[in-house]
Specification:
Elements lengths: L5 E2 L8 E2 L9 H9 L5 H15 L14 E3 L13 E3 L6 H7 L4 H14 L4 E10 L5 E11 L5 E4 L11 E2 H5 L5 E9 L4 E3 L1 H12 L1
Antiparallel strand pairs: 1-2, 3-4, 5-6, 5-9, 6-7, 7-8, 9-10
Helix pairs in contact: 1-4, 2-4, 3-4
Length: about 210
């Protein structure tokens, strides 16, 4: 059995297995998935991407710029446990939390999409990777997206940060091999069952990721 890595990007900086961010056992997400229409694999994929686009927005800071920062404010109770106010420069939400706040960065929205697809019995993975300009290979930044498979066995990239209408589904082959203006370079794939990482490629970006 391959080791599942842990991360400390939770809302309070708590530690979780990365596979915990695909919540197929969550009752609310199960209800949402049941309510989404679609009998064929392709219809199910479309229903999920439309739901995510219509119900989530990318979080912005006070200047209207995209941000992955989190701020947690809680009450302090006398004679009991309490949590201090906490600010995180970067953090992840569980899909159930994303549904509550209706906002999420790329990781949040892709994990929600992956969770709903898995609940609809569709093959799906959240992918962690790097986005580059295809022409000059300039790194634009880290990103997360959902990868799924349609009824013909074609692997698709689901860009989950576009709203209120979903982005067009794109062939993973075209997106990964630089056939489009930007290239998505995948480093790791996971769902609730497994985690796979291209360690050689991760090392290639290690210096840039650590900056």
């Amino acid at each position: 059995m391959k080791k599942i890595p842990t991360v400390k990007y939770g809302l309070l900086g708590e530690e979780n297995y990365i596979t915990d961010f695909i919540q197929v056992e969550n009752p609310k997400l199960q209800r949402i998935a049941r309510a989404l229409r679609g009998r064929t694999v392709d219809e199910k994929i479309q229903s999920v991407v439309h739901y995510v686009a219509a119900n989530l927005e990318y979080p912005l800071d006070y200047r209207g710029r995209p941000t992955g920062a989190r701020s947690v404010k809680v009450f302090k109770w006398w004679n009991g446990f309490y949590l201090a106010d906490k600010n995180l420069d970067y953090g992840w939400l569980l899909p159930s939390q994303t549904c509550e706040v209706k906002k999420g960065i790329c990781f949040d929205s892709s994990c929600l999409a992956t969770t709903l697809l898995r609940l609809k019995k569709v093959e799906a993975l959240t992918v962690l990777g790097i986005v580059l300009r295809s022409k000059n290979k300039r790194i634009l930044g880290p990103h997360a997206w959902t990868e799924t498979v349609d009824s013909k066995g074609k692997r698709l990239v689901l860009e989950t940060t576009v709203h209120p209408k979903p982005a067009k589904l794109v062939s993973a082959k075209k997106m990964y091999l630089g056939k489009l203006p930007v290239t998505y370079d995948p480093l790791a794939w996971f769902n609730e069952l497994s985690y796979v990482e291209d360690k050689k490629k991760t090392r290639k970006y290690e210096v840039w990721l650590d900056d």
